[in-house]
Amino acid sequence: MNRANGISPHAKKAELLSAVFTLCGLDPTLNSLELARLVDQSRRVAESRIRRLKPGRIGSVDLDALGHVVYHWQRTSKYLDEDGRPLRLPLRGQGPSLQSLFRETGHKTYFPSGVQHLRDVGRVKKTRNGCYLPCAEVSIVQSLSPELVELLAQTINRVVTTVLHNTSLRKKDAIRLVERVTMVPDLPRREVNAFKLFAREQGGALIDTVNDWLERRRGNQVPRRTTHAGRLTAGLHVFAFVEKNSK
Questions:
Q1: Which one, of 58, 56, 57, 60, lies nearest residue 109 by Cα?
Q2: Gap between the terminal Cα atoms of the chain
Q3: CA distance 79 to 90
Q4: What confidence tens digit (pLDDT) does each residue in 93-109 have?
Q5: Which residues are within 8 A (CB) of 14 and not within 5 positions of it... i.e. 6 or more apart?
Q6: Is 148 within 8 Å of 155 (Cβ atoms)?
Q7: Model-level pTM?
Q8: In sequence order, which residues have a C-beta less than 8 Å from that of residue 23 and are 6 or more positions away?
Q9: Is-contact 102 67, C-beta < 8 A?
């Protein structure tokens, strides 16, 4: 247990399992014996995958903190030149620096490792004079890491939670969370790369717009009297998929 707040360190995993068992429970054709068989089979498949993956890691990467730092860099006047472009920043210094960015965004203790993580996930590049510039709009973790596994688990749980939330609202005019999908079963294989590029462009534009809206309203912008209990995690997850059709 997390003695500070009484929350189990595995609470997210419990939520994910609850979501999976909720889906199973909603299937009237799935009895308890068949469910037990599926659970045992799934565990064995998972163990086999883990042995093959041998996940690497680059330390404990806080993707939200990294995104927050780069957003502040690209949107705050003291970190922009006269043309509105991000300044080249030294690691430390009296004026604007990477260290001051981490401090101003509330991630002071993450600064030493956070700088390396910015480079590892491709968000900044180091210039010839030893300064840094943002060079990408998204973080890309090249190897499977515990953070990505956690993100995957959270994504599955959030999809189920969104569906359950929307279907539990009784009022017809209640505001429901967006949950949409578009797909075709017969895209020619030659169009796959074009689809990947198109989906990246369209999805990236949507994410940028939503991220800008969220960043301007996140917790550090509200009065200090607002308690932690009055804040919620909110976001939008966009992903594309290509899969083989079942025979």
A1: 60
A2: 46
A3: 12
A4: 888 999 999 999 989 99
A5: 8
A6: no
A7: 0.59
A8: 160
A9: no
